C-alpha cells in the first residue's frame, strides 16, 4: 500500500512534481526567513526544516529512481528522516530550495526519458512492499503534497 497515493487526489504525478519547486518558492517568499524558522508546535519541524527534508529526500529519490531502472527488482534502502534532520540547523532556506529545485529538474528529465513500459518495472521497499517504478513516481508526488500542505498550514498562521 502506498501511503502517499491518496494525497495526489488522482492528479497526474508528473505534473504535481513539476509544479512543486515553484509552489515552494511562492510559499517561502510569503513566509519570509523569520516565520520559516518558527515550528508549528513543540517537537514539530519548522517550514525551513521541512524544506531541508524535501531536499534530502529528492537526493534519495534521485538514487532510487535510477537504481530502480538499472537494477533488476531493486530493493530500496530506507532512511530515518528524524536522524537525518538533526543536521538541518546550519542549512539556509535558499540552499535547501536551490538543492531541491535543481535535483528535481534532474529527476524530471530522467523520468521523462523512461519508456512507458518501464513504469511497470518492479522494486521493493522493505517497509512498503513491492511496487512499480510508476508508483515510486506517484510516491514522490504524494510526498510533495503532504509536505506542501504542512508548509501551507504554517504560512496560514
Q: Going by CATH, what is the homologous superfamily? A: dinb family like domain
How far apart, in Å, are the first and last alpha carbons? 33 Å
Q: Helix/strand-derived class?
A: mainly alpha
Percent of residues in β-strands: 5-15%
CATH fold type:
Four Helix Bundle (Hemerythrin (Met), subunit A)
Mean pLDDT: 94
Count of alpha/pi helices: 5
- Uncertain runs are none
In percent, how helical is the residue content? 55-70%
CATH class identity: Mainly Alpha
Count up the domains: 1
Radius of gyration: 16 Å
Coarse morphology: globular
CATH architecture: Up-down Bundle
Number of strands: 2
Sequence of strands across the biggest β-sheet: 1-2
Major pleated sheet: 2 strands, antiparallel
The H/E string reads HHHHEEH
What labels would you give this structure?
Four Helix Bundle (Hemerythrin (Met), subunit A), 62% helix, 157 residues, two-stranded antiparallel sheet, mainly alpha
What's the arrangement of secondary structure elements?
Elements: H1 13-36, H2 47-70, H3 81-85, H4 93-113, E1 122-125, E2 129-132, H5 133-155
Antiparallel strand pairs: 1-2
Helix pairs in contact: 1-2, 1-4, 1-5, 2-4, 2-5
